[in-house]
What does this fold into?
Amino acid sequence: MTLELNKIFFCTGARNHDLLKIFDQHDVRFEYDERMASFKALGLSKMTQTPVGICTTSGTAVAQCVPAMLEAYYSELPLVLISGDRPKKLHGTGSPQTIEHEMLTRSCRRSYLEIDSSELSQVDLNQLEFPVHINVLVDDTVPHNIDINFHKELKAYKNFIDKIKKPLFIFSHENMSMRPFIEKFAQSKLTFYAETLSGGHDLSPIKTEKKLIELFKAGFFDAVIRVGHTPLTKIWRLLEKSPLPVFHFDARNLPALSFGEVLPMNSDNLLKSDEFWRMTAQLLPYPVADETIWSLEELIQKYPEAEISYCDKLNQLIHSDDVVYLGNSLVIRFFELTQKKNLVVFGNRGVNGIDGQLASAIGLAMGTKKQVFCILGDVTTFYDLTSLRDMPENLKLIIMNNKGGRIFDMLKLDKRIVMEHEHDFKDIAFGLKLSYSQKISDFNQVQVLELSPDRAQSEAFLQEWVR
Ligand SMILES: Cc1ncc(C[n+]2csc(CCOP(=O)(O)OP(=O)(O)O)c2C)c(N)n1
It folds into this structure.
């Protein structure tokens, strides 16, 4: 073992998951709050005067380590930040949870390395000045080279659709609701999938991601046309592995993939462009019937205590006029799956962090007189506990306490990163004088509602659903 670290504070995430096996010989402690974990590492390195590691996933997780790294820099402490990153070719593309890690630690490190996972165990810390930032490119082998073309005019869209017949339109999200555009687009009878944050999920002819994936894998589409920012759907990651021609209407001028044609226009620009509608009219409708919605209903009846069924109940209890804020992880996926109403839905999907979620919902509630419903996972809520001190009256927090980061279970990753627990938020809520209940029947009575789905039912539901 060359990489000599007293201990590694391993902060759970999918991107750095593969690095776990490299730390087999190390003393690993699992964490999920990177800011706290890096200060714990700082304290340990102060006491022992030995190098201590923090390992994080990509995105804001790395930024959360900056305060402790700053302290380490000015206190001359041997802190070693190891960040899991996406392959180099995806940098600068806006691909999911991909940001520039290097810049984040410029003012708080004395050494920086960018290496492949295979090189990590060989790093000799004796050759480096502390604090150290090691950025590891965890390659999930994107099989093709970067092929992005940036355009300035709609003519490029015309050239694109001249060569295709059955595109899938994906409407993800933008700063403002995309609903006016989606309403008009729906009249074309072309096939599209509108994600929940687009503001038009209820209008989507493809109702579930399951159907979307089925069609994609069956080769039903010959191209993809995206309007909006980086999508949530798994299709987006599948596309990197099984590419189709893709056209991106993204006002940020980002492909969010390693390939495609990019035009910096948003849904409002398109809504007002006669040219866009004229061009799109040349595509012939090819309707799809989404029967998956019936099997979904059956499973909801069969497993009423499953997490998806709770999301369905919440969808029924929330009114069309209310505002919803969804935490990253399973909540946003399951809420979308069961959404049938026209709702205004927000989330932080810029870089998908689980940090500051309740605080973001508090800010939203401060900006409106409407009722805001914030639905978060338990780990996400723990990450932002201090925000609980300051809940505006028009904000209701719903905690989906499935006792750990269950997304990692769904992704079939190492069980240890689920960080299973038996905690609940009851005493914290009462201690902060918040009205609280664990019963969904108290939905209208309390400000903090904690729901605990039945594990066995959630698992059985998912098994039957994805089969
Ligand atoms: C700041 C930050 N750290 C780590 C992650 C990686 N991450 C994604 S989901 C997740 C677990 C979320 O758990 P929970 O809120 O309980 O939701 P569940 O997975 O159970 O739906 C983690 C740690 C992240 N996205 N952002």
Remarks:
- Residues 12-13, 32, 34, 57, 59-61, 64, 327-331, 352-355, 377-380, 402, 405-407 surround thiamine diphosphate (CB under 6 Å).
